[in-house]
Specification:
Shape: globular
Largest sheet: 3 strands, parallel
Oligomer: single chain
Structural class: alpha/beta
Strand order of the largest sheet: 1-2-5
Helix content: 40-55%
Length: 151
Amino acid sequence: VNQVASVAVIRALQAHLIENNGQIIFLTSAAKNVPGAEAYGQSKSRIEKWLKRFSIQIEERIKIFSVIPGTCDTRITRLFMEHGSVEAKARGRAIRNSQGFRDPNAIGKIIATMAITGFQFNTKTNNYDCPIKQCEIVSIVDENFGRLHQA
């Protein structure tokens, strides 16, 4: 799903995306190197590499960026915590106990704002004013999350 389906959808829509100055927003993960989640991490790494090569071929006619949302309260997070490796379970518990899981709806608002404006959150100005570069991987930061989560 992370790799083959993503490439197939992008290839199928490539002409339409170019014609309409489209965007590709890929959700990647900081959990790429978590023991017990190797297949997941490898698939995220492969699609990131493919997107970088693809962006060179299309010469920025499609805006592409990736987002690392942080640990969200999703089905996959719960599955990792229930059925994952000892390391994955411990990592999930530590994140849940220290900062809690992020609300996927709030993350969606942040990603939508970045997609519409073309900017990422700047913690110095407290606004979305940092241009997102082609094929940049943007982390959703705590300041960014907290601000929109309250909205």
